[in-house]
């Protein structure tokens, strides 16, 4: 890493405050699920989940366009304070309709802030530090994902369901304030109307991912991989508690072991070389390891045997995530990154929604153990099918880059 003092300051500031924001989100979602669960309406839980994810898909074209046209700090500061206000509203109004409606409003704002921060990070870190900055941000998010549900449950039992929402509101406000303290800013580039005039469209991010010969097979591989992983997540609670007769504590610690592994994997991936071949190979190897580990979990007979496989799965998933995001960042033109990150968020959020529904359907047909085995085999097979295509494209891209430098 070759961060300047100013870059290091801004990355640490952004990572710390974004980590607090991620933690606040996790606290809030735990509190909201606990708020709606006693009502006994399964559709209310489903509606809350949809309200928290669907705007990320539907608003992604507009969000990417706005992020690429408006200075980042100005946009993110206003979004942060607006998110804080909505969180206060969710904490004050407890009705089911109000909760779901305000969650829809909050996720609509997040649809803009997610690609905004994602595009700002490489601007701060510099092109040569993209992998390191992605590793740092993903590791912070992983820590929040591990701690959030536990702290959320404790807070709800201790101070009630509203305070986690108020804490989340404070986290958004702090993130907005921290953004004003950043020395770096991402501003619309004049190249957006010259070099990339043909790409100056809302769906340019999706078009770029599809038309890039290296990213297309990796996006397809990652889509199938996440589909399998999210289907397994649906089956996990039944596999641990019903098939293997594990306790609720065992289920929680199994999830925590995956989260801890993903933090380690994100940190390790931050040290990767940013060459196309190395990054593509890292994504494919990591997905293959996850597939094999998930297949192996489907064969275990005791809960205790799951933990080492879950740690390995978490480490590999963390590496795959950081390597994939780094490759997308390195490959995409700077002026297009808002739309590229918005497209990535929309594609994988839609994949998550579909996988959750598919997981519930598959569980009605086969056992939880079979879901693990099927998901693991599918993820591994996908990496082996699309892997050679991606590696060939990455080698060609590396060769062209070398030729250009030689000239």
> How is the biggest beta sheet arranged?
none
Number of separate strands: 0
Shape: globular
Average pLDDT score: 85
**Helix and strand pattern:** HHHHHHHHHHHHHH
How does the helix and strand content classify structurally? mainly alpha
Distance between the termini: 27 Å
- Which fold does the CATH topology of the largest domain refer to? Growth Hormone, Chain: A
CATH architecture of the largest domain: Up-down Bundle
CATH superfamily membership of the largest domain: MFS general substrate transporter like domains
Radius of gyration, in Å, reads 21 Å
Which residues form runs of ≥5 with pLDDT under 50? 190-199
- Tally of helical runs: 14
In which range does the helix fraction lie? over 70%
Summary?
The chain is built from 14 helices and no strands.
What's the structural blueprint in terms of helices and strands?
Blueprint lengths: L4 H32 L5 H17 L1 H10 L2 H21 L3 H30 L4 H30 L2 H20 L22 H8 L3 H29 L4 H22 L6 H22 L8 H26 L5 H27 L4 H39 L1
What does this structure look like?
The chain is globular. The chain contains 14 helices and no strands. It has 407 residues and is mainly α.
Q: Keywords for this structure?
A:
407 residues, mainly alpha, Growth Hormone, Chain: A, 2 domains, 14 helices, 82% helix
């Amino acid at each position: 890493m070759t961060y300047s003092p100013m870059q290091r300051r801004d990355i640490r500031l952004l990572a710390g405050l974004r980590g607090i924001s991620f933690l606040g989100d996790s606290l809030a979602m735990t509190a909201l699920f606990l708020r709606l669960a006693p009502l006994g309406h399964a559709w209310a839980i489903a509606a809350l989940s949809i309200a928290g994810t669907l705007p990320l898909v539907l608003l992604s074209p507009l969000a990417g366009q706005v992020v690429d046209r408006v200075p980042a700090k100005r946009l993110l500061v206003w979004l942060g304070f607006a998110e804080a206000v909505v969180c206060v509203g969710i904490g004050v109004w407890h009705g089911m309709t109000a909760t779901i409606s305000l969650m829809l409003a909050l996720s609509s704002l997040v649809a803009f802030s997610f690609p905004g921060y994602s595009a700002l990070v490489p601007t701060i870190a510099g092109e040569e530090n993209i992998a390191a900055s992605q590793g740092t941000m993903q590791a912070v998010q992983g820590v929040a994902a591990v701690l959030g549900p536990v702290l959320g449950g404790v807070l709800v039992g201790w101070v009630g369901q509203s305070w986690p929402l108020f804490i989340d509101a404070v986290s958004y406000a702090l993130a907005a304030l921290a953004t004003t303290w950043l020395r770096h800013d991402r501003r619309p580039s004049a190249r957006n109307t010259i070099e990339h005039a043909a790409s100056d469209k809302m769906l340019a991010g999706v078009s770029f991912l599809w038309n890039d010969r290296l990213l297309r097979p990796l996006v397809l591989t990652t889509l199938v991989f996440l589909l399998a992983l999210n289907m397994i997540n649906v089956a996990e609670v039944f596999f641990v508690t019903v098939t293997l007769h594990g306790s609720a504590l065992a289920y929680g610690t199994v999830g925590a072991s995956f989260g801890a592994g993903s933090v380690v994997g994100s940190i390790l991936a931050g040290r990767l070389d940013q060459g196309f071949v190395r990054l593509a190979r890292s994504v494919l190897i990591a997905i293959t390891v996850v597939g094999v580990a998930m297949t192996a979990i489907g064969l275990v007979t005791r809960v205790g045997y799951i933990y080492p496989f879950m740690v390995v799965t978490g480490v590999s998933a963390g590496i795959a995530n950081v390597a994939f995001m780094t490759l997308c960042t390195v490959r995409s033109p700077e002026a297009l990154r808002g739309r590229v990150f918005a497209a990535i968020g929309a594609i994988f959020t839609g994949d998550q929604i579909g996988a959750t529904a598919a997981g519930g359907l598959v569980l009605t047909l086969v056992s939880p153990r079979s879901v693990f085995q099927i998901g693991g085999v599918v993820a591994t097979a996908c990496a082996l099918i699309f892997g050679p295509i991606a590696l060939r494209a990455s080698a060609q891209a590396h060769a062209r880059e070398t030729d250009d430098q030689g000239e």
